[in-house]
Amino acid sequence: MRISELGRDSGVAVATIKYYLREGLLHEGRRTSATQAQYDESHVARLRLVRALIGVGGLSVAAAREVLEQLDNPPETMHDLLGTAHRSLGPAVDEEVDTTAAEAVLERLGWRVESADRQAVRQLAAALDALEAADFPLSEEAVTTYARAMRELAEGEVSGVPVESREAAVRYLVLGTVLVEPLLLALRRLAQADASARHYGS
Fold it and tell me: Domain HTH merR-type spans what residues (predicted)?
């Protein structure tokens, strides 16, 4: 198919497709002349994935490119792959942030954290700092309650990694991390709305 047909089938504007091609998010089509190329269903599928990562997933173009590179050329272990997915999420945090409070939380929970997970540790530290700065610190009990809920969720997710193929496992880990996070936030807000209606509604 030509690029105009690719745009029609994928629902992505031709100008956006050209931008994704320049940014390396979409692989080149098969050249038929100096100015023309042919595309196929693999391009349609890739475009839908890119749109999901940037749209629902909320990733920057650079972060989406990193995720796609890991999908195309995954590291040796699934754990390293998960670390790559994690690094693409959440705000950038100053590497000099004091992680003492975050380390204390992790030690209390008995959670294993490796060097690949340091960005998430810094994000936890920054979140705890923001709570303190707003004079809204959480008690140890509250943090532990959140952590236990997340641990149960994570156990189910990690144990659900498909084993029939490495490709399926890679896709599950990366997309399950990047694209499910907005779902979790939406469900939390809806659960709060439901709980509020039950407690305080008429």
Answer: 1-70
